[in-house]
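Per reviewer request, we include the raw input and output of the structure prediction for the construct analysed in the revised manuscript.
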Amino acid sequence: MLRSSLLPYVAAALAVGIFIFDTISPLQFAVAVLYVVVVLIAASCGRRRDVLIAAVGCAALTLLSFLLEHGFPLHGTAPARCVVSLAAIGITTLLALKNLSAIEQLRETERQRANLARFFSPQVVDQLVGIDTPLSVARYQAAAVLFVDMIGFTAYCSRMAPDAVIAMLRELLALLSESVFAHNGAIDKFLGDGLMAVFGLPIPSRLDATNAARCALDIQQSMDRWNERYQRSGAVAIRVAVGVHYGDVVQGDIGSDKRLELTVLGDTVNVARRVEAYCRALDAAVLVTGALIDALSAESSGGLTGAFSDQGHHVLRGHTEPIHLFGVIRSVA
């Protein structure tokens, strides 16, 4: 295939050749129709400007050739051939521009899909691409918020090379993301050595609390498998803490005109963050609130509540009222 940088020169050379042939050839047919090939070559460059320049240039050469060869006749087949050639150039130009628009739209859709795939599961991405309501429209509804964070990140990485730290974090975040997406969650943001996920936004379901609880348990099982694999080579075990809360949240764009971020806000988010941090005080792998347990029962997932043992009421930082916590205590400290 010709390089795209050479295509304009090829188109120009072909246009000149057609012009010479159309002007001096004794053949009585619409030679200028061949200019459509020039327009198509310009279209293969992928820019509207190139198509329009080629179309205008080819139309001008068609008219110039007609005037040089025939003058200004208003009868006979020569004017008809000229009109046919101009019509062919115009139709080809229109189709080429429409084709470029379709390609650009497809690329934009794929770009949006790739961007959404960083934060949403494939099923949610398919739904978001097909809806008309933009994600930036603020909404207020119930959702489950999950925080997961690596415990002792600084100490763990103090003896590692920078590239090894980055490689470990990439693998860890990929594992966490896989668990979130597997349970129809959305990643709100990455937090260095952890992440924040939401279940129920932007598209709610009847099992948002259930999905969040299952995701929390799945994360711990995934980390157990991770540690079994790496401890064989002498690596230190990695521990993460997971906190989940259920309640009303606000989703919308925040930031400045130069940089906006789609996120969820509200006391539910703050409580979930505090619950995750409180895992260290109880040496728990997972902590969830009583609100999530109630939501599990409301979703007919009461059997799942047995995975979380009652840890009593605790006062979390920033809250005066105690919060009922349930959790999964680590079997090995």
